[in-house]
Write a structure and sequence with these properties.
The chain has seven helices and five strands; from the N terminus they run βααβααβααβαβ. By secondary structure, the protein is an alpha/beta fold. The longest helix has 16 residues. It is globular and about 45 Å long.
Length: 128
């Protein structure tokens, strides 16, 4: 299973060919999922979307398995966040929650946001 970050979903909605190719490749390899945090991020940003783009987003979300934030994922995110803050390398709380969910579910995160997520030691990342 592979977990896509919201940046890949946004690129898909914009018709980015590289994102489309990446998604096809992921779907051919294994099941594709997204975190509940990324679902929130995507829906939170739809205010400026056209009806067509909103419909595309809803169709995409219907196709993906959603990994929820559970207690263990939240605890992992909290520990990672504390460690990063102590070393002066903190990242956005939403990114911490996404990382916690991926670590807990033992799935790689497919993202372009490597600069932030690389700070999370136990998170497997694949840049698209």
């Amino acid at each position: 299973m592979n977990c896509i970050d919201s940046d890949l979903a946004i690129a898909l909605l914009k018709g980015d060919e590289k994102a489309r190719d990446e998604m096809v490749s992921l779907e051919n390899d294994d099941e594709v999922c997204i975190t509940s945090i990324s679902v929130f991020e995507l829906l939170h940003t739809t205010r400026g979307f056209s009806k067509e783009r909103k419909d595309l987003l809803m169709n995409l979300l219907e196709e993906l398995r959603v990994l929820d934030l559970d207690k263990r994922s939240a605890m992992l995110a909290g520990v990672v966040g504390t460690t990063l803050t102590r070393t002066g390398r903190s990242i956005h709380p939403m990114d911490l929650l996404i990382a916690g969910i991926c670590i807990n579910n033992k799935v790689p995160l497919i993202t372009r946001n490597v600069r932030h997520f690389n700070k999370v030691k136990d998170l497997k990342i694949r840049k698209w």
